[in-house]
């Protein structure tokens, strides 16, 4: 069965600190897709990144970076030089290789960045 | 800037009343998903459609929930009769099977059943 675990329920940091959000997944499929979504206080779910199981290259987008390691079934998310606007709940999600099927979400990590 | 839209954004109703939530997927997307978010359960799938046909509604309480896609631009989720335990945020998401197949979420409908 598929499962996503975000062990960190809440993280608090001070602005400009770097922070890493952990995500560990379980799947029996060899082809799968991993996602991160951000849910700010306003409540919407904002897509951040999609990664497929064949692409283990790490990705950087501005202050955001993602570390995908199949050997440890992890897809961690790092925010460099955090800002107050980064305060949100971050969800990691998994989808198997059947296109158009549902996402399996982790429970989310609440990140609070104080000034 | 194409977005998924949902109406209403907020709904307060009394137990036993019928509730209908609507979703307009991104034009051209052929998969539509309904998710529910609660503090206890987190984000869970209720139902999803591909090309307007229901593929999986195993996450829905069958006796009171129903989901339909009358046409390609409208998906509905109905609860009848509503119960306090249905209070949650209901998200609609749409995606394109081909291509990136990322699911894009609407702003959600926050439902409170008194």
Structural class of chain B: mainly beta
Radius of gyration of chain A, whole Å: 14 Å
- CA(first)-CA(last) distance of chain A: 41 Å
Main sheet overview of chain A: 6 strands, mixed
Strand content of chain A: over 45%
Q: Helical stretch count of chain A? A: 0
Write the H/E string of chain B, N to C: EEEEEEEEEEE
Count the strands of chain A?
12
- Tally of extended strands of chain B? 11
Query: How many distinct helices of chain B?
Result: 0
Order of helices and strands of chain A: EEEEEEEEEEEE
Description:
Helices cover 0% and strands 53% of the residues of chain A. Chain A is built from no helices and twelve strands. In chain A, strands 2, 5, 6, 10, 11 and 12 form a six-stranded mixed β-sheet that branches. A four-stranded antiparallel β-sheet of chain A has the order 3-9-8-7, with no helix packed on it. In chain A, strands 1-4 form a two-stranded antiparallel ribbon. In chain A, strand 5 and strand 6 form a beta hairpin. By secondary structure, chain B is an all-beta fold. Chain B is 0% helix and 54% strand. Chain B contains no helices and eleven strands. In chain B, the strands form two sheets. In chain B, strands 2, 4, 5, 6, 9, 10 and 11 form a seven-stranded mixed β-sheet that branches. Chain B has a four-stranded antiparallel β-sheet with strand order 1-3-8-7, with no helix packed on it. In chain B, strand 7 and strand 8 (74-79) form a beta hairpin. The model of chain B has no long low-confidence stretch (mean pLDDT 93).
